[in-house]
Specification:
CheY-like_superfamily, 5 strands, Response regulator transcription factor, phosphoprotein, globular, single chain, alpha/beta, Rossmann fold, Bact_response_regulator
Length: about 130
Amino acid sequence: MLAVPKTVLVVEDDHDIRELIVIILEADGYEVASLDSGRDVILTVQRTSPDILLLDVMLGDMDGRDICKALKSSPATSQMPVMIVSATHGWETRHERQCMADDYVAKPFDITDLLVRVSNLVNRKSA
């Protein structure tokens, strides 16, 4: 029996970066869905229950940190791992920590590092 692939939701407003992340994750065996804005993230998460969410901070229509905080504050979605993927450095600032993300990757990111971090969070969730 084949294992069911882990699902990833990628939210990134930059088309090229979004497509790159999708290609990388699919090549590593993940089932990937993606959104280009923040407006449908919470509804999509509630409908599809991804194993992990990769979330940009500076989306065109919303701040990814606010989305992360809303998801982490809801009992229905609080256990889903969220990884912030952003060009903004300074993860250690109070505002960044308050969003309660499980991990952070700065752009530009190392592909191997991204895959290791995603795997660690997905495996932690299923443990």
